[in-house]
Amino acid sequence: MHFGFQTVTEEERREKIYQVFENVAKKYDVMNDSMTLGIHRVWKDILVHKMNPCPGTLLLDVAGGTGDIAFRFINYVRSVRQRQLQRKLKHHQNLSWQEIFESYQKDEFNSLGDSQVVVCDINREMLKVGKQKAEHLGYSEGLSWVLGNAEELPFDDDKFDVYTIAFGIRNVTRIDLALQEAYRVLKPGGRFLCLEFSHVSNPLLSRLYDLYSFQVIPVLGEVIAGDWRSYQYLVESIRQFPPQEELKVMIEDAGFFKVDYENLNFGIVAIHSGFKL
Amino acid sequence: QARRARGRRGGRQQQPGSASGSGSGSGLGSGSDSGSGSGSGSARPQPPEPSLLRFLVCPLSKRPLRYEEATNELINEELGIAYPIIDGIPNMVPEAARMTRQKAPAEGSERP
Predict the structure, then answer these.
(1) Taking CA atoms, what residue in A is nearest to B65?
(2) Residue B77, in any domain of the structure
(3) Range of the domain at B86
(4) What's the domain count of chain A?
(5) Residue ranges of region Disordered (chain B) (predicted)?
(6) What domain range is A50 assigned to?
(7) Candidate from B2, B27, B57 with C-beta closest to A142
(8) pLDDT (tens digit per residue) in A137-178
(9) In chain A, which residue's Cα lies nearest the Cα of B9?
């Protein structure tokens, strides 16, 4: 088994990865901004736009630790819901002001339209950070947090409309098991979405990317988080992770149909998508 | 809207543990906020979101769980194990579970 460029047993790998995220949890968001110059926010926005959830969607965000995808999901369905309500009101031409006011009141309690997101992560520290962020930013409705293992999810079959895993699948020890679990918990018709660092095929870009990854990122890790080793692991693990086509085959093996991927920034990041039919 | 949400949470805090009853996935009120600033070692155990209990099953056997308010745990009666809820977050990994019976549960609980 590999931990970055080292060779370790499965158990050692799980242990080491747990420690990496335990160490970086509090600085996770800051590091993401520094390493990617804020571009990770755009990648995550694109993921949620691609998902295009409608109110009433049930999302399971795995390895969702600090809540980035969950918050974006909530914002998205809230604004879709707003527009829905406004359109509804526009059609009721003959309502009195009292009636219009009352309908706003009634729907206020359903501003998410029954949408829900469950954030599941194996690392307690990351979940703590996520929960604190949620409280700080005022997210409470339709959001819950669970400590669980992507390879062995504590959820029943056929439950969720969408399953996302953003920058998490790379850290799973048995990716095949995680994909099988993803398939299991999705409803028929449900969608699997994976956002992850991938492979850059353009040779010049690849060299620049390598340079940046190995020379700059661990240094940033030391300066900002006081932990270059964790960030060394990060950049190494990206290189060890299967490239786009290989991941596509793994997803198909788990039973998903219409498996597809979209490269962002020339393959630095890719979004894989599949459906359970 | 965010501000209003905070206000409502504050109001409901008087009824810990009461299911929200309305059945919609709103998850308002019970459990997971620590308005007093997240203390270490919660003086009052935070129950999980009622909406979450609909989805959770035992990660090993995928069978339903029972919420035990006294110990703030999710119990799998069949296998005789209990998963703790810490700071309002259910700890659904087998490593964290404790056995509720003296004797070991049946072979079926062994991880493949």
Answers:
(1) A154
(2) yes
(3) 50-99
(4) 1
(5) 1-51
(6) 2-81+115-275
(7) B27
(8) 999 889 999 999 999 999 999 999 999 999 999 999 999 999
(9) A140
